[in-house]
Amino acid sequence: MAVNILLLLADDMNYNTIGCYGCPVENISPNLDKLASEGMRFDNAHVTIAVCQPSRQSMLTGLYPHHNGALGFDPIREDVTTLTEVLRDNGYYNGIIGKVEHCQPESKFAWDYFSDVFNAENCYGRSPYIYGRNSAEFFKKAKEAGKPFFLMANSHDPHRPFAGSAQELHSHPHAFGFNTYASRYYTADEAWVPGFLPDLPDIRTELAQYYSSCHRCDESMGEVLKALDESGMADDTLVIFMSDNGMAFPFSKANCYLNSTKTPFIARWPGHIKPGSWNNTDYISGIDYTPTILEAVGLLDKLSCDGKSYLPLLKGEKHEGRNVVFTQFNTTSMKASFPMRCMQTGQFGYIFNSWADGATFFKNESKIGLTYKAMKEAAEDDREIADRVRFFDYRCREEFYDFRNDPDALNNLIDDPSYQEQVSFFRSELKKYMEQTNDPVLPDFNKIVFRV
Prior knowledge:
Structural class: alpha/beta
Oligomer: single chain
Radius of gyration: 21 Å
Strand content: 15-25%
Number of helices: 14
CATH superfamily of the largest domain: Alkaline Phosphatase, subunit A
């Protein structure tokens, strides 16, 4: 029996937003928690780059952004082969629901079923019902075609504008209310404030809107899974749930922190993945997705990738060389360039910011909401918050964190004398990685860090 593939992707969801990852917000993710109980949860899964389009395109090519040609919100090169092209050429029926504009050019992704839901008619990708209806239609068409399937179901939640926010009303005026209704609106008192943000009233308000969007995302994913069950094909389907990057708040999305690239990761495959299992030691990356799927369907020899398959880990087997992950950032959706490179292990993380010259001002979408504004206002009377805002705005060339004890990256240890041996090791290992991958940021890294 051929293996079906279902990729469920949240849009801008932090790794610790889901209940099974420790989020204390009430009933935030019952459907995804159930999926985790039926499969395997990874603690150390990362995306390759923490922004929407290049993150997805790295997943579906198995290549770093500087190898597939899409450093930011760009199409991949025409000579790059995608996962979906290989699957189509080998008898698969491919489909996408939502975020279709983030797999470009369209011709390279070989979709047989194409559902753009980012419009008023389809509630701007924020209706669980529509995800259920469209996925049921896709499963029916795949059955009629007599082919195994690959479906990429992309929620537009919890991307901004958040549920019930003024931004949502302004952005989608014709869809507000009935069309973008959320079944659960959290209050500021119910919101959990992650450690990398200060606990301020307006931040709590915006986090409540974010959690409302996350709950709606869980419902959308639940509707897709329900449609899969009703299709009768669930037992033959490998399901993987991830987020494309962290939440759109300061110090998360569009950066290289733990809260930027670390993603919730749940995999279910009846008969192959042990229900309720948990991997809290091995590191996997977004570029590993394509080779993993190709190995699962018996086509690993069809495509050369930067990543490596983690299929052995899904089956509960040991897999050497899974103790480190390399991540990056390049350009924002507005084409502003802020090159960053990061190496993370079980305890430490090293970040190189080639753009941080003390004068360049960092701009990204997390600055358009209530949170950044609240931090700026509080900074007028609070020195600690003022230092935090300035650091976010201008950063520094190098950052080094003990992520095991400081997951929110509050204490930069780059100049701490007691950590210089570790810093030297990370500098050296990142240099080797950049040389091996022909990274375009390598000349700046050598000049700034090694002064050569």
